[in-house]
Design brief:
Length: about 190
């Protein structure tokens, strides 16, 4: 005879021994079961659980799992098969989708994110260029621009046009040759 305790998720723990109480005999707690045999070591990747009043081997998927829709990491504590919305396969990161067997890179989502990032970066650089261009244009409009001002204005406008054309580059959005800042700004 072998005695096992049943934990809160139905895992069989043991065999364990309980003391014989003098005058009463062997007293088993409510979460214990007495079996005719000692259970063998479970198969690799499995464990013993108490199910339908009998010991049953089930897969051991306890540990870190990933939500197949969001990739969110979670600790799984239940024995047995995982629900289909979880996988033990590590989520590689953003822009990966679950195909039922593995994570695949969603190239459209990656491209869309790269486009959004590139355009946001471009817009920030365009705004910074506009700040540099405005006083140079003011100097030209007022007739007080120096030759250096006029040359700088031309360089900044070319820079701004080049920035605005990054979408036309062959490698856009993953491989962008960003235009260099005008020399006038680097010198100041």
């Amino acid at each position: 005879m072998a005695i096992y305790t049943i934990d809160d998720v139905s895992l069989l723990v043991g065999p364990v021994e309980f003391p014989v109480v003098p005058g009463v005999g062997l007293q088993l707690p409510g979460n214990a079961v007495e079996l005719d045999i000692t259970l063998p070591t479970p198969d690799a990747g499995h464990l013993w659980v108490w199910q339908d009043n009998a010991p049953v081997q089930v897969p051991d998927n306890r540990g870190t799992v990933y939500h197949t829709e969001t990739g969110a990491e979670q600790q799984w504590i239940l024995p047995g098969d995982l629900p289909s919305i979880y996988t033990p396969i590590t989520w590689p990161g953003a822009h990966h989708i679950w195909n039922g067997e593995d994570w695949l890179l969603d190239k459209q989502a990656l491209n869309a994110a790269q486009v959004e990032h590139a355009l946001s970066q471009r817009d920030g650089l365009l705004a910074a260029a506009a700040i540099r261009i405005a006083p140079l244009e003011d100097a030209v409009e007022l007739g007080i621009a120096t030759q250096t001002d006029e040359a700088a204005l031309r360089e900044w406008k070319i820079y701004r046009v080049d920035l605005n054309r990054i979408e036309n580059q062959e490698g856009f959005p993953s491989d962008i040759a960003w235009p260099s800042l005008p020399a006038a700004r680097r010198a100041r």
